[in-house]
Structure formats: C-alpha cells, structure tokens
Amino acid sequence: MMNARSKVETVPLAVDLDGTLIATDLLWEGIFLLLKKNILYIFLLPVWALRGRAWLKHEIAERVMIDASTLPYRLEFLDFLKREHAGGRRLVLATASATSFAEAVAKHLGIFDAVYSTSRIRNLAAGNKLKMLVEAFGERGFDYAGNSRADITIFSNARKAIVVAPDRAARAWHRKHGGDGEAGGYFPAPRTGLHGILKMLRAHQWIKNTLVFVPPLLAHDLFSVNVVIHAAIAFVSFCAAASSIYIVNDLFDLQLDRRHARKKARPFASGAFSIPFGIGAAIALLALAYGLALLLPARYMLVLTLYLVVTTAYTAALKRMLLIDVLVLAGLYTLRLLAGVAATATPDSFWLLAFSIFFFLSLSLVKRYVELTSSPPEEKAKLAGRGYRAIDREIIAQSGVASAFGAVLVLALYVDSQSVASLYAHPWMIWPLCPIVLYINLRIWILARREEMHDDPVVFLLGDWRSLIMVLIGAAMLVLAGVNW
Questions:
Q1: Domains plus CATH for the chain?
Q2: List of residues 6+ apart from 112 with CB closer than 8 A
Q3: How far apart are CA 116 and CA 114, in angstroms?
Q4: Localized where (predicted)?
Q5: Which residues of 405-425 are buried (b: 16+ CB within 10 A; e: fewer)?
Q6: DSSP, res 144
Q7: Which of 26, 160, 384, 448 has its CB 3.0 to 4.6 Å from that of 183, i.e. a possible disulfide?
Q8: Confidence at residue 1, expressed as pLDDT on a 0 to 100 scale
C-alpha cells in the first residue's frame, strides 16, 4: 500500500526557472551579455523583439552563453528540490527561457528529468506553459512551483502550487488560496532594506565626489554662501550620476562579479534586486543628476556629460584595455575637480589638475595591483575582465610608486610658485604637505605589497586612521598658512 509521502512523489513537480529557481531573469542577463559582447547589438534587439518574444530569446541565446554554475540560485528552494529528487520524485524544468539557457541549468544541477523551454516560435510562458504541462501530465496531474503573475493561471490549474519569492500578484494569490506545507508550499524572498539600496548605489564611493569642493576650497572661495550651495548641488548631482553608472556597470559585469570572492555579494550579482529594477533606478538617478545640473552653469553640464560618456566607454570597453583603464580612472577623478571648477565658476588651476593626474594614477595602479594579488590569473592568462597578467605586477608597482613621486614633485613646484605666494600669508607652512602626501601614497603601496589593503584605495584611506591624521594635519597647515598672525 502506498503511503502519503510516496503518493506525493509519484506526481511530477514542474519548476519555473526565472525568479523561481534562480533570483534573476535570463532574458535580461542575455541582453546585457550580448551588449557587452558588442554594443551595436542594441540596434538589432528591437528588430528581433518585433518578431515576438520567442524569436528575441532565441536570437540572444544563439550568440551568448551563460555560466550556470555562478547563477544566484534560491538555495532553500533548491535544497527542497534536491530532497524531492533524492526521494525519487520526477522533476521537470518548465521555463520561458531559451532552450540553451535552460539546458545549461539542468545539466549543472543534475536533478531534472526533463526540460521544457522556449523555442524559436513558441514562448513557453503563462497559457503556453499550462497547455504544455496539461498535454504532458493531464489535468491537475502535476504540481507547479512559480513566482510571478504569469504563473497564476498555472497555480490555479495545478494539483498543488508552490510559491517561491513571489511578486505582488503571486503573493496575493497565495494569501487568498493558502499554502500547502506538504508540497513545499511557500518560500518567501529574502528581505532587502536600506542597506541593500545603499549597497546598490555604492554610497561609500560618494566620498570621491567631495573633490568638487576642492577647487573653491583651494581658491579660498568657500566663504561665499552661493559658492557653497553650487558646490553642494554639484556634489549631489555627481553622486546620482556616479551611482547610475555603478548600477549599469554591475549589470554588465554580472558573470564576472559572481566569480569574485567579494563582488558576488553585490545586489544584482546575488539576485537581491532584479535587473529591470536596476535599469529603472539608473534612469531615475540620471534624471536627478541632470535636473540638478540645470541649476548650475552650463559648463558644469558639459563636464557631467563628458564624465558619463567616459564612464560608459570605460564600462563597455576601456576597462579591459591595458594601461588605458588606469589612465581613464585617473582622468575621471580629475573630471570631478573640473566639475567643481565649472559649478562654482572657480578659475582653472594647472597645478591642481597636474597633481591630480599623477596622484590618482598611482591610486588606480594600486587597485589593479591588488586585484592581481588577490585573484592572480594563471600563467599567461589575463585577469578576468582586465588586460593584465600576473607577470605585470612588478611593472604596475613601479609605475604606481613613480606616479606617487611625480605627484609630490608637482606639489613641491606649486608650493614654490607665485600662485601660493598670492593666496597664503605664510607659504612656507605649506611645505609639509609634500612629505604628508608622500607618506599617504607610499603607505598605501607598502600595505598593498603586504596584501593588507582593500582593493579600493580611496575607501581604504577613509578607514585608515593614520592616513586620516595626516590629512587633518595637512588641512591645518593650509588654514594656518592663510591666516595673518
């Protein structure tokens, strides 16, 4: 006689893929993989979409491959499926994703007895999926696990429904019809609060945008209320623009981030936030950045646009080019200074721009050095997503230290210039800035060599009390140098 448990196991369980088994959507992932391969595909995507969703998915899947081993699986639900499979239950992967994507997942997991997926001419979603399941297993001859509004019609026609990380519509359906503990019933989505939002925005990186205050500060213009307001608006605008680019960068780098020990916890790589949510957030942030730019001089908007163009090019291609990437990173820091100049109508300073190029080039090289140290590629292989090999570590370190000395040399020449004499009552008090800057930069390099530093040197500086003390001493010297006493 068959007991209740074995009776359940004789009924096949059909499992949805996107949003259910994995915390992402493979159509969106495929789109970003395709655009990363060649941005010009953006012109073909609408053409394919006009022929239907099934055709679009097929064309994308023909050109890109996913790494099923790194996808963000819903682990609690996956453990449940593995227990069902181990108990002899037949599991079927029934998904609207393209066939090659679905088969890659099924092959990686090894728990599915069959795969039903979208073909070139049929999108296996909602009604099409229900029709296929009824044809294969009969009316109410299957259980079904899904997560979205499109799955509700299948929930209603399945023998039992398992609701996994539901959207609003699926959650409402579950509340109305109740869970079913025997079949697994309900697997809620992990909560993502303010911490997740800040992580998505990379709020800790906003400190870099305080560079917009530096030009008016060094020009002694921060005593003007109007200048302070304009600099503050530029700061918020740049933070919004930078966060939008961080989001886009994360969407392009999903597979690379998932292979990284630390970056795999990022909100999009881990599946905490959906790709459409990220696209919407990036557009809203961009609108905020330009809305605030309208309150500032037109020159600021030109700098902001240049920043966005360069960062987009960096995300799309430049970050994979040997040395070009670090030169661009150094230039992006300098653009923040130019944004401060433009927003506050502060006169341009050759000395400040020259110093920033050398100083931030050194920090950019530190970042690449640490990446090569923490995740060294195999011999003659390149660092994932970059143009560097393990053998390049020494030349990167030498170039970085040389850049640090170059920055101090520019600073020393500036201290002895007429510009300082006209701005400060006691120019000789600025000389200690040279050893201070050298100490901060060389300390970063020494700690990088010891493998004791975060891979972002700017973030590291904010948490290193010794460097912060040096910064405060340097700021005090600048204040004292400008006071008549």
A1: 4-187 (3.40.50.1000), 194-348 (1.10.357.140)
A2: 15, 91, 92, 93, 106
A3: 7
A4: Membrane
A5: ebbbebbbebbeeebbeeebe
A6: E
A7: 160
A8: 32
